[in-house]
Amino acid sequence: MDTSLDRKQWSPIRAAVLAVVVAAAALSLLPGARGARAATGDSLGQITAATPACSVGTGVAFDGSHLILSCWGSNQLWRVSPADGSLIDTLTIAGLSDIGAMAWDGSRGKLWVCESGNQVYLADTSAQTATSQFSSGGCIDGLAYDGADGTLWASADASATLRHYKADGTLLGTFNLSAKLGGTYGNSGIAVGGNMLYLANNGGSQIYQCTKDLVTCTLMSTFPRRLEDLECDNVTFAPKGAIWSNDAYDRILNAWEIPTGTCTFGGGAVGGSGSGVPVRTATPTSTPSPKATPTSPPTSTPAPANTVVATQVPPAPVGVVGAGARGPAITAPNTGTGASAASESTASSGWLALLAAAGIALLGAGAAIAVRARR
Fold it and tell me: Residue 84's domain is classified under what CATH number?
């Protein structure tokens, strides 16, 4: 029996090949497929925080779950959802009055804040209290915690000087940023990622990646927004890494993609690996339970009595440090993609469905060839 295949017998193979081509083309159009090609500096999302009005607000921090925002001339902090900007709660920090840049400390589970332009405090967001640590040369625009060695980096408003401190305030180094951040621009935001620093320039809409000795600074990306305080986030858009930037004159926050594992929240993993979630050194002790009685799940702590409701508008900044150096606000189109876990899940489902269809088509073609070959 002649088992050679004629032109008609090849038609199932052609159909299968066509099915695979169509599936591949459809996969390339899926949102998840486009997201996979995203690169350093691409927008991962943009949110508008639902907080009270604020004349100037440079501070942003990320505690692993929420973004925390500050406002000049106020002792209030607002925790918002990184997914949509909705207000979670309002904190009133006793003893403070003018909060600028901030940085979450993953090793302590507390918040470093800049008070009155140059005073560095460590705030307990649960107790809504703060303890003075040291006086800096300026920190209202830039403050970052470095989990690699437990130190802090700080800069004043639109400053050409970056300072490096121990947690007790001992000055480790002073660095001149002139001509390192795009010419005439000063520093306006700091984030620490592993062995690198991320520095925003005031009014230049750029973020530079610099070695910690500040010998080399390379432009990472240019963004269509004004950039103030910066904060790392390796959680919200995982497995992608992100840096959040805050605009001083509105409540619009943007997340920009950076290489995975280079900028983790809370200053990076303790010990300097910079690739994992920070480890908290303080472990709360639970209340002893009766013998042989299962321990109940922990319950949330009620908000302190002095918590201010979300509708309260913070006072206008009074005697703001460095206000004259800030300049006009920058307006630009919204380029955020608004990526979310839901879209990634939908894209994954689409991939599986199309791949299954292609597999079925190939199986059908093989079966048809076998039947025709036996005739």
Answer: 2.120.10
